[in-house]
Specification:
With 215 residues, this protein is mainly β. The chain has two domains: 4-72, no CATH class; 75-213, Sandwich (Adenovirus Type 5 Fiber Protein (Receptor Binding Domain)), CATH 2.60.90. It has strands spanning 4-6, 9-10, 18-19, 23-25, 29-30, 35-37, 43-45, 58-59, 70-71, 74-79, 82-85, 93-108, 111-124, 130-133, 144-147, 150-156, 162-166, 172-176, 181-185, 203-213. Strands 10-12-13-20-16-17 form a six-stranded antiparallel beta sheet, with no helix packed on it. A five-stranded antiparallel beta sheet has the order 11-14-19-18-15, with no helix packed on it. The chain is elongated and about 70 Å long.
Length: 215
Amino acid sequence: MSQINVTTIRNRTGGPPSLDQGVVVGAAATFSSTVSIAGTGNVTIAGDLVFSTAGKGVCLGVTSNTDANTLDDYEEGTFTPALDTVSSASTVDYSITNGAQTGRYTKIGDTVHYNLNLHCTVSAWGSGTWKITGLPFSCWSGINNAPVQSAKMWWKDAGGTTVYKLNDDDFQWQYWWNQSQLFAAITADGGSYRPTTLTNLQYIDITVMGTYFVN
């Protein structure tokens, strides 16, 4: 036989009664067509679970409220990456081709998973180290010169033929602490890199996929 123990039911103006001390369910109970508790303890909710106070979360794998086991943030969204140089006196002059200036991310707790794509028509390469701006969140302060997990770059001539391609082995986009940007580096000599030595170039494709921590 089901049993519900209620300490206090308090009337509330403009809404249904509220429970001051909670509800103890002995076996199973159905509060409405949208919320039910099975005798096994499983709770079924037809709608979303919404907290009345910001900063709250769900404690996973524990029987007490432990910060390390609390999932208190989840977010999905888009962002707009852009190509630039570290030097404020110089910029990369480009236009977006085929609308490819896109970024998507999913943030779970303090971890951000993302991917971005840039397809550009470049008329001036600028000077100094390249960077990609517009990441959705600033990187964790403990990240410094850490490479992204996967990145590809293709430079093409006016006819669309690939002239030069860089992979993870010889080129890196790197995170910089407390920044929402990626910085370019060539792994062959550890120095900064930009394609000023390449001629007859018009297009560049950049694809990056990675994961990083936030503060």
